[in-house]
Design goal:
single chain; 304 residues; alpha/beta; Spore Coat Polysaccharide Biosynthesis Protein SpsA, Chain A; 12-stranded mixed β-sheet; 10 helices; disordered N terminus
Length: 304
């Protein structure tokens, strides 16, 4: 798409998402294996974001082609979201890039940088999410409005962590979601093997484990709330795939009922009401695909 198309899309998104928490954008990494989380992720993000940008690759990161029909349905279901789809071309990436960032983490980090690069200049704060991270939008919006945010700064936002089903919540909190001041983001700290952690460490003024005044997290991370098939798809493409024999661990997990601990962190869990409906159903199609930017090879390489 031409530069004019990009500028027009940004103006469109600012207009339809006005009156939200000012100057905040959310960048979401997505693939269709995250379908069941997408609707609550985007609906909640829209409650506090002036812009929402979702970045998608043409293939899963193990080289398997994406579900084209499903992607087209998703694009039409969320006309108020800007989708940026880029070609997955491992052979086109210069080898020198992988001296700076591990191959296993490169595409995840590149997605965030592409999403960041499509934000409007008016944006002052950027929230980086994966699609399986869902905010409590009204609470987080209230926090954004009431907090005296001053840049440069980075905040790692506390989240609940779930395993197998959205009713099994770990008793240990994590803080994977990252909010940063936009003007202080540098490419070298986004295109990094440590992904969001590297960007967080770049900021001298930083705070982690951020919750509401009541000590309750704003976010829910459903990373491992999946079927066996979906877990296997996840571990074949994620940035930690070389750390352990994840496929064997997934198969062992699903050979028996849930034991009360997970194989990722060995957390303990409590059973709670599911905080969101994760049924994978999409809203009725509303758009005509005008909210999608399809990048070409030349454009992809320009982000390196």
């Amino acid at each position: 798409m031409t530069n004019f198309g990009r500028i027009g899309s940004c103006i469109y998104f600012i207009n339809i998402m006005k009156n939200k928490s000012p100057h905040v954008a959310t960048v979401v990494n997505f693939c269709t294996n995250e379908l069941c989380f997408l609707r609550p992720c985007l609906e909640q993000a829209s409650l506090f974001s002036n812009e929402v940008v979702v970045v998608v690759a043409s293939h899963f990161f193990d080289g398997t082609p994406e579900n084209r029909l499903l992607l087209d349905q998703i694009y039409r279901a969320f006309p108020a979201v800007l989708f940026v789809e880029y070609p997955f071309l491992p052979s086109a990436i210069p080898s020198k890039v992988f001296k700076q960032v591990r191959k296993e983490n490169f595409w995840h980090s590149l997605s965030r940088w592409i999403g960041f690069s499509h934000l409007s200049k008016e944006i002052q704060w950027v929230l980086f999410l994966d699609a399986d991270e869902v905010a409590e939008g009204e609470r987080f919006s209230s926090w954004l409005r009431s907090s005296s945010l001053s840049s440069p700064a980075a905040f790692k936002l506390a989240n609940y962590w779930y395993f197998r089903e959205p009713v099994y919540r770990a008793t240990t909190l994590e803080d994977s979601c990252l909010l940063v001041s936009k003007e202080d983001v540098l490419k070298d700290f986004v295109l990094h093997s440590d992904e969001r952690d590297a960007l967080y460490r770049h900021f001298r003024q930083r705070t982690r484990g951020v919750t509401g005044a009541d000590g309750i997290p704003f976010f829910h991370h459903f990373s491992w709330v999946r079927t066996e098939k979906e877990m296997l798809r996840k571990v074949r493409a994620w940035g930690h795939k070389g750390d352990r024999d994840w496929e064997a661990l997934v198969r062992k997990e699903w050979s028996a009922p849930f034991s009360g601990t997970d194989f990722v962190h060995n957390y303990r869990f409590q059973k709670v009401p599911a905080p969101f409906l994760l049924d994978g159903l999409l809203p009725p199609p509303q758009g005509n695909g005008g909210n999608v930017l399809f990048l070409e090879k030349k454009e992809l390489l320009s982000f390196l």
